Structure formats: C-alpha cells, structure tokens
From TrEMBL:
Superkingdom as given in the UniProt entry: Eukaryota
Annotated ranges, domain SET: 88-126
Name of the protein: SET domain-containing protein
InterPro entries per the UniProt record, alphabetical: Flavunoidine_N-MTase (IPR053201), SET_dom (IPR001214), SET_dom_sf (IPR046341)
Family matches, as Pfam families: SET (PF00856)
Amino acid sequence: MLRISSFNRAVRVSNRRYGHSTVGKRPVLTETVQVIKGESGDFTSKLVSKVDLFPGQVLASLEAMTPTDVKRYSTVQTGPDSHVELNSDLLYMNHSCDPNVVLDTDFGVVAAAREIKKGDAITFFYPSTEWDMDQPFQCWCGSPKCLKHVRGAKHIDSKTLNQFALSRHIREMKKEQV
Ligand SMILES: [Zn+2]
C-alpha cells in the first residue's frame, strides 16, 4: 500500500513552476487517461485509463495543481487548512470505497493502488484527502466496504478509516480529533 506524506513540498514545487497564472488551464492527459462525459453533466462523467498499470505505477502527475483558499467540490485537501485545484482532467476521478488509485500530493502523482486494466474507471477514496467535504453525497460504489454516505474523514470512525490508504494530514487530524 502506498503511503502518502508531506504534501507541502509538492505544492511548493508546483507554485514555483506554475504560479497562479495557470489557474483555469486544464492540460489534457491524453497519454494515460480519457474523460468519458456523462449525459447529465460533470457529476456522471468519469475518467478511464487508457493503459494497463501494475500496483504502484504512476498514472498521472499533479504538475498543474495550484493552491486555493476556497474548498470546493473540485479541490483536493493537502493539509489541515490548505487545498489545491487539480487544473486537469483528473478532476473527473470519481470516488470509490474500493479505489484503484491513490492521489499522492507528496510526490505529486496519481498512482495505481492495485492492478488497473485499460478501460477501467479511475477512482480514489475522497476521504483519503478530504476532512470535511464541501459537497457530501450518497455512495453507490457497490463495494462491501461502502460507506454509503461520504462526508469526509472527520465523520468516519478511526477503525473504518484506517482500512484505507490515507494522506498524512488526514491521519494526523484523525489522531487529534476529540
Ligand atoms: Zn461506496
């Protein structure tokens, strides 16, 4: 299982390389992933792998991410009070309670959590980065481990949460939660 830690370095690197001028820019990751648009807009769209991947292999880099003060459905949390916009098609990664990728902002990558076949929908576990989500939702992923109501790590008991690969800030925030 991949371990996620220290998001700050990746964010600093991203700032230095891209500044704020790339906000809104969406590099298309044509090499490895493809967005399949749903009929009723963004919320039924999905991201599909164009390649076979073995566990730990990198699917995409997070080079375009930029810090933001505002928590939105499109942001990823990188620390207790910090969030980033992905600024890429990775925005279309859906949640699953049995995810096939880990979003690792320490190394600035999305990596396979298990074997992925070409054509598989790319999913990650939103509470692995999100403490208290801006837009909670009902999950129908079908996994035996399905949380049913996804609201962020804050709302999941430690025993359940620790079954998943978690980012460092989530592990630390859970430890400190009273
Ligand atoms: Zn689920």
